[in-house]
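All the exercises in this workshop are built on plain-text protein records. An example says more than a description, so a record of this kind follows:
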Amino acid sequence: MWIFFRFISGIYLKNFFIIFFSLLGFYCGIDLLLNFKDLPKAANLDLLYIMFLSFSAVPYVLPISLIFALVVSLISMIRANEFVSLYALGLSRNYVILFPFLWALFFCCIYIGLNFTSFAYANDYKRNILKNGTIMNQSGEVFLKFNNNFVYISKINHGQNSAQNIKIFNINDLNLSSFVSAKNAHFEGESWILRDGNITLLPKNYELANDGLKIQDFSELKSLEGFKPKIIEGVASNSDYSIS
């Protein structure tokens, strides 16, 4: 059985890689022809653009290559009478399809695993290089609502899970109860870690002889649990999001 697996796998993998890299090169070539005039002048950014362009083409090229490789492999084995030889040696027709299917499943698992890494942001990096001449995109001011908080962010660092000059207004019963201001913030785990800021606590009742507002400085404060950076980046990119 191992000999059959190696034989069929060799034919399938050869056809797969030929088709995959051919389609990948065709995709990149067409894109470069269309966007050549907009590419930055720096050679390193051009190389990075080609790399991220190749990564962004994988979702389109991979499924086509997997299917076409199977079709081409079956046709080539039929034309070379290898199918008849395999059947004569007692190999079931199900195994002829099973071995390529296992390889296709393997490549799909690799692709799914890559999407848990920075590979998933390849299209964003490519677009940033083309439009801004830099990999990381920095969005401008954002003001939005999350639960009972209104959040203002001066600058968002895409892909770095960080923000600068963040202000959080906490509202209770339509009244401002507290106000948090921080110079920097970084998303860790499921919450934002605010650094180098202060929190202002406002009194519930504005009456004479009662305690007034209190201002406390902090070096680090955990806040906005569940407020993921992708939500902020989507709003900053004018995407349609519902935040409540």
